């Protein structure tokens, strides 16, 4: 009615009521959903409850109301369900109570049956347990057998490993270890004994490495001790092979008809072949006796050690250790003994050790792979070669015995040939031999210098006397002397040279032989050998023999006669040089006409010796003259001369005559000898006269002699006259005219000037080519005049000549002063001009 009575308000109220009803319905629906969610227990309840409380105010109250209503509905449903099933439940209980009695009976029956079954099954259980136990044992036995069958090979291999270790078969032991690790251990790796074995293998490997390294050290020590024996064996093999090849070559030459000549005697082919056959048979026997390096050294330690380290994968360590130790041994081997140069055995031991070292290295190189390489051995050899050359160069310099140097050369050749046979380059060793060859020549020169000195000491320096044909042939066989005139003479006769000449010639040939010995086996051509022989012979002639000759010539005890004989000897030695050249040519088969052939310098050597001997003759003559002149005892104040020449001068002249007679009595059966002796005699005579003249002039002009009397001048004039008589007597033939007298011309003109007192002529003709006193020097005349003037003043008045001066004292003094003044003017003019 209210709605009808007021239209507007009713319509508004209706609207609001409808809206409220709609909201309530929505809220109820929401709560229903919430309750459904709570009942489901599938969603988290927190969010559901939060939605109830977070929605609207008073929502809790409304929810609770809804919840109570829901509970009441459920209670009603439960009550209805219980009422529906209650009768059935009662019936079921009743049924169960009825069955209870039957169940108890059944239980008693079942218990009784179970007891009876238990009693009956006890025996079955016992047998069953026995069967089970047997089955388990059987299964275990089968399992054990299977496992033992699996382990037995491992144990057998390990036992084999132990046996190999005990038997020192280390390489086989390592192989066994590899099989154990790669094949057997994986089968039984789960067992403890296997782990123990696995843990023990590294220790065994280390033991093997140590043992093999110890064996290697013993091997290295062994080869160090046996190196000299190995080297000696190798050098013998090389020497035998070389001898065999040389013998074979000679045999081949004989087959082609190339006959051999020794000392110009022909050897028959049959005998030569027989000798060669025997030599070859001997070489074969020697070669059979020579052992190889494998016979002397057991290399198995090296092989084993190399294989062991190869298996262990440590081959590089082994190679480095081996090479390091061998390098140390090489340095020890290359270190020579301090007295090695004293004996050939010292050099031989040094070479054999080096050869033994490198023979071992070469063997290792060829029988192993990678332990040593060719590059390594070449490097080691180059190092060793430099050291060897330095050692030989140093020690050979101490050698003074040519025989020792020659033996050293032969050892070096064998040493080089041996190592060359093993592939080592040895050219530097042959270059060293050329240095040693020079040293060998020096030692030969020193040795032959002693030989020459001994020959000169033993020589009597007189022509060789021969009394029969046999002695003549002996001398001719030693020295190539050819003189038809001497051959025609009857016995006894004399060779012009002394005994030293054939001896010197023989020794020069011996020197050539000795020098040739060093050139053998040097792999040089005949031309080079010829050149070496000629050069060494030239050194012998120009240095050694020349020095010995010069020393001989200068010896004080060698007199003038000996010097003359030395001159003759050098002439014959000079002529023999061409025979020495022919001798070398016959040895080397190299013609002298070859362009590069060296000539012998003997000609100049012996010419120099002759000149030295001649000069020594002149010097000794002059010394002897000086000795006589020193005996002069003039009384420079005598008033009258003795009337005869001084005694010292006559003795001197007699000595000169006897000396020059030696020259005149020299053998002149050869024109060269005659010319040589005549030239020497003439030169010696002229030199003696000139020296005597000079000595006499110096005696007059001696500054210590202050005054001379005219009597002394006259006495001195008598001595000069004797000198002139000696010169004019031709003491040595061959002088033309008064050539020898010209040696005293200065003295003669000076003495004539004072004896004649011809000062006016001297002063007037001075400087004229035709002057009578051309050889009188104004200074000389002035010096002597002043001495005579002082003698005049001090002479006693009883002297006749001084008395005459006394009577005319003023005129004579004025004359002398005038002459002195003029002479001084001439002297001053000469000095100004000069």
Automatic annotation (TrEMBL):
It comes from the Eukaryota. One of its GO terms (cellular component) is plasma membrane. One of its GO terms (biological process) is intracellular protein transport. Keywords: Exocytosis, Transport. Residues 429-787 form the Exocyst complex subunit EXOC6/Sec15 C-terminal domain. Gene3D superfamilies: Dsl1p vesicle tethering complex, Tip20p subunit, domain D (1.20.58.670), Exocyst complex subunit Sec15 C-terminal domain, N-terminal subdomain (1.10.357.30). Residues 66-235 form the Exocyst complex component EXOC6/Sec15 N-terminal domain. InterPro entries: EXOC6/Sec15 (IPR007225), EXOC6/Sec15_C (IPR046361), EXOC6/Sec15_C_dom1 (IPR042045), EXOC6_Sec15_N (IPR048359), EXOC6PINT-1/Sec15/Tip20_C_dom2 (IPR042044). Component of the exocyst complex involved in the docking of exocytic vesicles with fusion sites on the plasma membrane. PANTHER family: EXOCYST COMPLEX COMPONENT 6, SEC15. Belongs to the SEC15 family. This is Exocyst complex component. It comes from Sapajus apella.
């Amino acid at each position: 009615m209210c709605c009808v009575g007021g239209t507007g308000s009713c319509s508004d109220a209706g609207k609001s009521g409808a809206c409220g009803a709609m909201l309530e319905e929505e809220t109820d629906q929401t709560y229903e959903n919430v309750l459904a969610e709570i009942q489901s227990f599938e969603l988290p309840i927190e969010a559901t409850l939060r939605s109830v409380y977070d929605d609207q105010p008073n929502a809790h109250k409304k929810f609770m109301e809804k919840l109570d209503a829901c509970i009441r509905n459920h209670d009603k449903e439960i009550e209805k369900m219980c009422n529906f099933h209650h009768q059935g439940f009662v019936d079921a209980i009743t049924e169960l109570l009825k069955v209870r009695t039957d169940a108890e009976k059944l239980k008693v029956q079942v218990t009784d049956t179970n007891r009876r079954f238990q009693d009956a099954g006890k025996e079955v259980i016992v047998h069953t347990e026995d069967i089970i136990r047997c089955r388990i044992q059987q299964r275990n036995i089968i399992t054990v057998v299977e496992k033992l069958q699996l382990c037995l090979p491992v144990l057998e291999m390990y036992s084999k490993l132990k046996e190999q270790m005990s038997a020192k078969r280390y390489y086989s032991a390592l192989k066994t270890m590899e099989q154990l690790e790669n094949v057997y251990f994986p089968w039984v790796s789960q067992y403890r004994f296997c782990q123990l074995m696995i843990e023990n293998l590294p220790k065994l490997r280390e033991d093997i490495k140590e043992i093999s390294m110890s064996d290697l050290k013993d091997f290295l020590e062994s080869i160090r001790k046996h190196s000299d024996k190995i080297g000696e064996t190798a050098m013998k093999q090389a020497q035998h092979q070389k001898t065999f090849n040389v013998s074979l070559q000679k045999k081949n030459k004989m087959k082609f008809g190339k006959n051999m000549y020794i000392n110009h005697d022909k050897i028959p082919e049959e005998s030569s072949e027989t000798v060669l056959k025997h030599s070859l048979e001997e070489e074969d026997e020697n070669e059979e006796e020579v052992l190889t390096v494998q016979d002397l050294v057991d290399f198995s330690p090296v092989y084993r050690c190399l294989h062991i380290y190869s298996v262990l994968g440590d081959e590089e360590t082994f190679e480095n250790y081996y090479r390091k130790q061998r390098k140390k041994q090489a340095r020890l081997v290359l270190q020579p003994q301090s007295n090695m140069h004293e004996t050939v055995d010292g050099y031989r031991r040094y070479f054999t050790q080096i050869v033994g070292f490198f023979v071992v290295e070469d063997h290792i190189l060829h029988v192993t792979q990678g332990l040593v390489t060719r590059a390594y051995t070449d490097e080691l050899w180059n190092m060793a070669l430099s050291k060897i050359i330095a050692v030989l160069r140093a020690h050979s310099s101490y050698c003074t015995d040519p025989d020792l140097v020659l033996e050293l050369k032969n050892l070096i050749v064998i040493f080089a040939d041996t190592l060359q046979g093993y592939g080592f380059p040895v050219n530097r060793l042959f270059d060293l031999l050329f240095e040693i060859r020079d040293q060998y020549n020096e030692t030969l020169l020193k040795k032959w210098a002693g030989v020459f000195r001994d020959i000169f000491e033993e020589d009597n320096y007189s022509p060789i006397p021969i009394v029969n044909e046999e002695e003549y042939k002996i001398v001719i066989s030693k020295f190539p002397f050819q003189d038809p005139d001497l051959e025609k003479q009857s016995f006894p006769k004399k060779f012009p040279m002394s005994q030293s000449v054939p001896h010197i010639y023989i020794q020069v040939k011996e020197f050539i032989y000795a020098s040739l010995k060093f050139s053998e086996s040097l792999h040089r051509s005949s031309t080079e050998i010829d050149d070496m022989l000629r050069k060494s012979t030239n050194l012998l002639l120009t240095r050694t023999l020349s020095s010995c000759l010069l020393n001989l010539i200068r010896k004080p005890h060698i007199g003038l006669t000996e010097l003359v004989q030395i001159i003759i000897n050098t002439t014959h030695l000079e002529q023999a040089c061409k025979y020495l050249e022919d001798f070398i040519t016959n040895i080397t088969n190299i013609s002298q006409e070859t362009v590069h052939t060296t000539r012998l310098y003997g000609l100049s050597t012996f010419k120099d010796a002759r000149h030295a001997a001649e000069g020594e003759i002149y010097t000794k003559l002059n010394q002897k003259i000086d000795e006589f002149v020193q005996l002069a005892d003039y009384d420079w104040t005598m008033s009258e001369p003795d009337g005869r020449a001084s005694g010292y001068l006559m003795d001197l002249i007699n000595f000169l005559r006897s000396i020059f007679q030696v020259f005149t009595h020299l053998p002149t059966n050869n024109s060269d000898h005659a010319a040589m002796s005549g030239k020497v005699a003439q030169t010696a005579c002229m030199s003696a006269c000139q020296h005597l003249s000079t000595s006499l002039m110096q005696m007059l002009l001696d500054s210590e002699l202050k005054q001379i009397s005219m009597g002394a001048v006259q006495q001195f004039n008598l001595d000069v006259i004797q000198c002139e008589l000696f010169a004019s007597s031709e003491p040595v033939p061959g002088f033309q005219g008064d050539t020898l007298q010209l040696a005293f011309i200065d003295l003669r003109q000076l003495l004539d000037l004072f004896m004649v007192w011809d000062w006016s002529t001297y002063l007037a003709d001075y400087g004229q080519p035709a002057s009578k006193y051309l050889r009188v020097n104004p200074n000389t005349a002035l010096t002597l005049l002043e001495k005579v003037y002082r003698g005049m003043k001090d002479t006693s008045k009883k002297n006749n000549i001084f008395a005459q001066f006394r009577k005319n004292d003023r005129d004579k003094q004025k004359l002398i002063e005038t002459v002195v003044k003029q002479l001084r003017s001439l002297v001053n003019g000469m000095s100004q001009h000069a």
